[in-house]
Amino acid sequence: MWIRVVYQHRGQLGEVLASLVPARQRCFPFWNAGDALIMFGLMMVLAGVAQSYLLSQGVLVRQPIETDPPLSDAQTAANQYVLIAISLVVGLMALGVMLAFFRSRSDKLLDRLGLRVRRGDVVLGLKASLMVLPPVLVISGLLNLVIPYEHPVLEILAGIDSVPKLVLVFVTTAIATPLVEEFLFRTLLIGGFERLAQAMQVGDLQQWERDQGDQPWKDRFDWPVIASSFIFAIMHFGHGAAPVPLFVLALALGYLYRRTGSIVAPIVVHMVLNSLTLIVETLRVNT
Predict the structure, then answer these.
(1) Using CB atoms within 10 A of its CB, is residue 273 exposed (0-12), middle (13-18) or buried (19+)?
(2) Which segments cross the bilayer (predicted)?
């Protein structure tokens, strides 16, 4: 589908994309890129505190130094499940803290942050998955022939021996991670960069905001999507060649957010990708 569309309309790709994802009226972002840094830092601090506490309680087993005997396979697997649980809780806690923080700064919070769930956005996300994921998966597959993909979750899948463990991995990877990452990288980072771009253009941003009021805002900046996509890709460094296809994915998700002002469609695409990856890899490593 996507190959035919690109080939037939290769000279008018921008117009085709605009027709597939009509632009909606958006409010000007009231947050800045520093809020994305705050959320990321909060996640790091919470994860560090949780790990330190669980190490002190013996729930996590400390990684051995060179002179210590290595951890057993059972200890390593137990550590991995605990770390996944920490990731799940920390991500949702950080998201909740940021929403509570923003609630005092703006009304109509769900709409302004792009979190209002509408049926049309869910459908758009499913349609976008059919267009976006095939090229991303093709790029990923080709690069994996040269640089194998690596991720701790893939190692865990081979050792899953119970339904609760599988549910934990699925909920964390296919549901919570897309929600948290899309809010962080699409809402906070792109929106924050858009605010910065507008400030660079108008000079006195506070006066411009007073003049703008609650009027619909149309962004005219491309670099926020590109910059946030680059950061998103770099954050996955160390997972083989994953940053390359993930950069392409992030561009598409950023475009969806920019056109709709909502992260519901990007979340759906992200969930579909992670769910498919989990299903395929689970079948592969257990057959």
Answers:
(1) buried
(2) 36-61, 81-102, 122-147, 230-257, 263-283
